[in-house]
Specification:
- The protein is mostly helical and 130 residues long.
- It folds into two domains: 1-41; 60-129, Helicase, Ruva Protein, domain 3, CATH 1.10.8.
- It is built from four helices and no strands.
- The protein is rod-shaped, with a radius of gyration of 28 Å.
């Protein structure tokens, strides 16, 4: 009987040893994966990074207002806001879209964009708002 208990105890110790090693290896793999993932991320949050058009899609009324403005980031050559994809342009278009979605009239959104971001380039794009 003591022999069976001793053998069972040894088996439990072996199983515990195997499980602890598996856990240690899994944690190591997870840490390596995180380190590799972080090293592959080359986007700096403080930079105006380009975003592919499939990543951010805006409503047509947002782009209609954006056409009346140039990007205000200072690094993209004042590209038209509707087509610019830098971080500042994306943020400005999100500002426009958020205000439109909250029910703000388009004319008021245009005035807010003028006030906060500037770079208004033309009333010809906004005739339908006045």
């Amino acid at each position: 009987m003591a022999s069976k208990q001793k053998k069972r105890l040894q088996n439990n110790q072996i199983n515990d040893f195997i499980m602890s090693n598996i856990i240690i290896v899994a944690i190591g793999v997870l840490i390596i994966g995180v380190v590799i993932g972080m090293s592959l991320n080359t986007n700096d949050e403080n930079q105006n990074t380009r975003v592919t058009p499939t990543q951010t899609v805006f409503a047509s009324n947002t782009l209609k207002i954006a056409k009346a403005f140039a990007c205000s980031c200072g690094t993209c050559g004042e590209e038209n806001l509707a087509v610019c994809e830098c971080g500042t342009a994306i943020g400005t278009k999100q500002f426009i879209e958020g205000n439109l979605q909250s029910g703000m009239p388009e004319g008021k959104v245009v005035e807010l964009v003028k006030e906060y971001y500037g770079h208004y380039v033309g009333a010809s794009q906004l005739q339908s708002f006045n």
